[in-house]
Amino acid sequence: MGSTLAQKVWDAHVVRHGGSGEDLLYVDLQLLHEVNTPQAFDALRAAGRTVRRPGLTLGTEDHNTPTLALDRIIADPAGRRQAQLMRENCAQFGIPLHRLGDPGQGIVHVIGPELGLVRPGMTIVCCDSHTTTLGAFGALAFGIGASQVEHVLATQTLGMRPLKNMVVDIPGRLPEGVTAKDLVLALIARIGTAGGQGHIVEYRGEAVDALSMEARMTLCNMTVEAGSRAGMIAPDETTFAYLAQRPGMPQGAAWEAEVAYWRSLRSDDDAVFDRSVTLDASTLSPYVSWGTNPAQAVPLDGRVPAPGDFAGEAERAAAERALSYMDLRPGTAMRDVAVDAVFLGSCTNGRIEDLRAAADVLRGRRVADGLHMMIVPGSARVRRQAVDEGLDRVFAEAGADFRAGAGCSMCAALNEDRLRPGQRAASTNNRNFEGRQGKGSRTHIVSPPVAAATAVAGRLAAPADL
Amino acid sequence: MEKFTVHTGTAVPLRRSDVDTDQIIPARFCVSSSRSGHAASLFADWREDPEFVLNRPAHRGATVLVAGNDFGTGSSREYAVWALQDYGFKAVIAPRYGDIFRGNSLLNGLLTVVVPEEVVERLWQLVEADPAVEVVVDLERLEVRCAGLVQPFALDEDVRARLLAGHDTISATLQYEDEIAAYERGRRPALPTTL
Ligand code: SF4
């Protein structure tokens, strides 16, 4: 019996087999941000331990960072303290850190690939559930909690029980105007928030092959919203071409040797998956969420569902709660939902292709009166490239608010960027949970083109509607 | 970590499914830098509603949370576990959990027990009928008991042993230091470093 891609990467990292229990896996890279780490460093110090491999560790500041100006200090004293502790902890243990203002700073899941630190076949962990993003490179990338961060800092390993394997086959081509975001929203709507629980998901098929690396990252990013621990895509020519442009890559024969190894990282033809799902890409259209979890999504052409549309009692109760929180009436056409704000950014859709897609819609158009469109680049590099390409001018002419600082911003509303209670936004982030974008906020998850079209129309819209 | 053997306490029936960690502790409270002091942030937004189950005087002092499907989905914030523990919860009973939350809880000694949905429904009814009814979460016998109901549950043996002994996983791993070092010597030299 053959192996899956995930099993191959897993097996290559087992330091010690745990029999029926946890395998001890070697971690090739640990990424850190300021929010979920101070407790890990404290515990490390309290136990008199040290960081085993600072050179396999990298920190960034992203969740609390202000976006209005780079020299702005973090307004919230507790957030400021977290950033301060991050600096002290990284300095004490010799861990490189990208502080706000550094050219390499940005959202943790955006900078890893940019810096060439994410490569096929690696094991990568980070104190953040959306670490799944990095599986786009054929790496095995998990989100972990603070106690596990401490464990990896001290030992460079992580105890993990083997996970099940799931494959999502995506034949067909995405129609024009339909993005990886719509693809993953459609998938989660179909399999539910626990559809991938306990599994590593591998995506494959014609539609996946055709996606750029950035779009693959969007797809893998939201894999966690289906409950999966990781999402993966086998590396191919698209992956190698992306990596060849990144800093720090091996050269010459060493590069050829790496590529040869990376090519072996695919599921064998006779590999067995515990679960398989097929989604025909050619049938998809733009998706938007209506509720308070990412599975509560419908096509933009659709309507707000009624609780009675759902099978189980728990689903009906959840739908009722969501409708009331979102202040939506069943049967309302999604296109009739007016929004107060649009947020373009996050580790799901804060990369250059996302900004380009929005700029293509905004060029020569204006953001609707009274609507605030905030655009926050996923990293300082993304911002610089956007400026080099003149996207900043497009945004300014359209009346959108293109921020100076990169980071999570209104995705998690930990910095000053947040919605007011009752405000409704179309957002390119990954979570529409109650209060996610500020207390009492209402979020509709959308793709970048839909976000931009919505900003112009003032209500949920696709570019074709303009 | 505190040992977990047998816990007896009263329970809170949280009749909700898909309780994500953003609800357990909203992000704006995840700015502290310590593991304690999070009790007031637990379910902070929901607790503004006086009718929210945690606000009912009858459930004051409860130590077992009985929740619906998919408890603890979403963000990896360990604050969710710390807030539950800080509030006084020793165990959660639910049919299914978010994976990362479950891992975090078991590393901190918050026992997350999996029982079928109908058993959760039965526990909700028992606790709603009598908030003072005692729920026993017995890790030695792998059982939940409440008013005549006896429900076995499963837990990985190594996790159970660690919780019973109150052991920390890092010292256990560091026993294999030689194996880690041997693995490191065999890593491909082309792998990236950050320094
Ligand atoms: S952008 Fe949002 S989802 Fe991504 S790491 Fe930041 S807070 Fe988390």
From TrEMBL, chain A:
<feature type="region of interest" description="Disordered">
    <location>
        <begin position="422"/>
        <end position="444"/>
    </location>
</feature>
<keyword id="KW-0004">4Fe-4S</keyword>
<dbReference type="InterPro" id="IPR036008">
    <property type="entry name" value="Aconitase_4Fe-4S_dom"/>
</dbReference>
<keyword id="KW-0411">Iron-sulfur</keyword>
<feature type="binding site">
    <location>
        <position position="408"/>
    </location>
    <ligand>
        <name>[4Fe-4S] cluster</name>
    </ligand>
</feature>
<dbReference type="InterPro" id="IPR018136">
    <property type="entry name" value="Aconitase_4Fe-4S_BS"/>
</dbReference>
<feature type="binding site">
    <location>
        <position position="411"/>
    </location>
    <ligand>
        <name>[4Fe-4S] cluster</name>
    </ligand>
</feature>
<dbReference type="GO" id="GO:0009098">
    <property type="term" value="P:L-leucine biosynthetic process"/>
</dbReference>
<keyword id="KW-0408">Iron</keyword>
<comment type="pathway">
    <text>Amino-acid biosynthesis; L-leucine biosynthesis; L-leucine from 3-methyl-2-oxobutanoate: step 2/4.</text>
</comment>
<dbReference type="InterPro" id="IPR004430">
    <property type="entry name" value="3-IsopropMal_deHydase_lsu"/>
</dbReference>
<feature type="domain" description="Aconitase/3-isopropylmalate dehydratase large subunit alpha/beta/alpha">
    <location>
        <begin position="7"/>
        <end position="458"/>
    </location>
</feature>
<comment type="function">
    <text>Catalyzes the isomerization between 2-isopropylmalate and 3-isopropylmalate, via the formation of 2-isopropylmaleate.</text>
</comment>
<comment type="subunit">
    <text>Heterodimer of LeuC and LeuD.</text>
</comment>
<feature type="binding site">
    <location>
        <position position="347"/>
    </location>
    <ligand>
        <name>[4Fe-4S] cluster</name>
    </ligand>
</feature>
<dbReference type="InterPro" id="IPR033941">
    <property type="entry name" value="IPMI_cat"/>
</dbReference>
<dbReference type="InterPro" id="IPR015931">
    <property type="entry name" value="Acnase/IPM_dHydase_lsu_aba_1/3"/>
</dbReference>
<keyword id="KW-0028">Amino-acid biosynthesis</keyword>
<protein>
    <recommendedName>
        <fullName>3-isopropylmalate dehydratase large subunit</fullName>
        <ecNumber>4.2.1.33</ecNumber>
    </recommendedName>
</protein>
<dbReference type="InterPro" id="IPR050067">
    <property type="entry name" value="IPM_dehydratase_rel_enz"/>
</dbReference>
<dbReference type="Pfam" id="PF00330">
    <property type="entry name" value="Aconitase"/>
</dbReference>
<dbReference type="InterPro" id="IPR001030">
    <property type="entry name" value="Acoase/IPM_deHydtase_lsu_aba"/>
</dbReference>
<dbReference type="GO" id="GO:0046872">
    <property type="term" value="F:metal ion binding"/>
</dbReference>
<keyword id="KW-0456">Lyase</keyword>
<keyword id="KW-0100">Branched-chain amino acid biosynthesis</keyword>
<keyword id="KW-0479">Metal-binding</keyword>
<dbReference type="GO" id="GO:0051539">
    <property type="term" value="F:4 iron, 4 sulfur cluster binding"/>
</dbReference>
<dbReference type="GO" id="GO:0003861">
    <property type="term" value="F:3-isopropylmalate dehydratase activity"/>
</dbReference>
<comment type="similarity">
    <text>Belongs to the aconitase/IPM isomerase family. LeuC type 1 subfamily.</text>
</comment>
<keyword id="KW-0432">Leucine biosynthesis</keyword>
